[in-house]
Specification:
Number of strands of chain B: 0
Low-confidence stretches of chain B: none
Oligomer: heterodimer
Structural class of chain A: mainly alpha
Order of helices and strands of chain A: HHHHHHH
Order of helices and strands of chain B: H
Number of domains of chain A: 1
Largest interface: A-B, 16 and 16 residues
Radius of gyration of chain B: 18 Å
Mean pLDDT of chain B: 84
Number of domains of chain B: 1
Strand content of chain B: under 5%
Low-confidence stretches of chain A: 182-187
Largest sheet of chain A: none
Mean pLDDT of chain A: 87
């Protein structure tokens, strides 16, 4: 029964993202007021990637807290949380890299350069480095128990600047993204874009994140059993 | 019209390929898990 439920939500993820891809290219209108109106379609993929990077931080910190609460003497209590935390940070790195790449393409179309050290561009770069630093830290410690506790402490500390850089900084300083941010967060977004972003892309990307998380934690468990 | 069709079709085909690859990976991991459980018993 659980296998059927799993394939239902995985199938739904496939359908939602196929629909979002189709809608981004064929359903939404070219955006008004953009230098290259068709280029705005990339936000259907760019914005959910940034959301997923943010979700990855929260999921990682949640699991990191579970690891730190558990007794180190009983590996079964912290091992699953540690695997999930590491998986979330890896996927966060992937999605922050995708956010940076899609954002650079949009930047070239709208502002004339792939990179202009805009506060939001810089903040996503720092976020990517925060994810990468977690993986470097993990690879530097060999003892599994020490690695789990150290990297969990880092994940909890990193979530504060991570969320600050995503949600707060770009709203308190002047940024090229000013108008774009208000369009996405406030009421200025075209209803077609809102429908596709919130109705198709966001749930589709959340499903993709959950699927990648599940796959990565299962592979980590198999790796552990093989090594043991 | 044909050009517009390809603009829509190519990203959808790319996503369908990624989706099929993920399904394949998922099934392979499940097969290895079954094998690992059999080894444990």
């Amino acid at each position: 029964m659980r296998a059927y439920v799993a394939w239902i939500w995985k199938g739904a993820t496939g359908v939602l993202l196929a629909a979002a891809t189709w809608a981004a290219m064929a359903y939404v209108r070219p955006a008004e007021g953009f230098l290259y109106p068709d280029g705005a379609r990339i936000i259907i993929m760019h914005v959910p990637c940034a959301w997923i990077a943010c979700l990855a931080y929260v999921v990682a910190a949640w699991n990191a807290a579970a690891v730190l609460r558990a007794s180190t003497a009983v590996p079964a209590k912290w091992r699953a949380g540690d695997s999930r935390c590491a998986a979330a940070m890896e996927i966060g790195l992937l999605f922050s890299a995708l956010t940076t790449i899609t954002g650079s393409i949009f930047s070239r179309l709208q502002w004339g350069a792939f990179w202009s050290w805009d506060p939001r561009q810089t903040s996503i770069l720092v976020i990517m480095l925060l994810f990468a630093a977690y993986l470097v830290l993990r690879s530097a410690v060999t003892d599994a128990s020490v690695r789990a506790r150290l990297s969990s402490a880092y994940a909890i500390v990193a979530v504060v600047p991570g969320l600050f850089l995503i949600w707060v900084l770009p709203r308190v300083v002047s940024t090229l993204h000013g108008g774009a941010n208000q369009a996405v967060i406030g009421g200025g977004l075209d209803p077609q874009y809102r429908l596709v972003l919130y109705g198709l892309a966001l749930p589709g990307f959340v499903g993709l994140f959950a699927w990648l998380m599940q796959l990565r934690t299962r592979v980590a468990e198999l790796e552990r059993r093989w090594i043991a | 019209m044909s050009g517009q069709l390809w603009v829509v079709a190519v990203p959808v085909i790319v996503w369908a390929g990624v989706f099929a690859y993920m399904v394949m990976l998922d099934r392979k991991v499940a097969a290895v898990e079954v094998g690992a459980e059999a080894d444990d018993q």
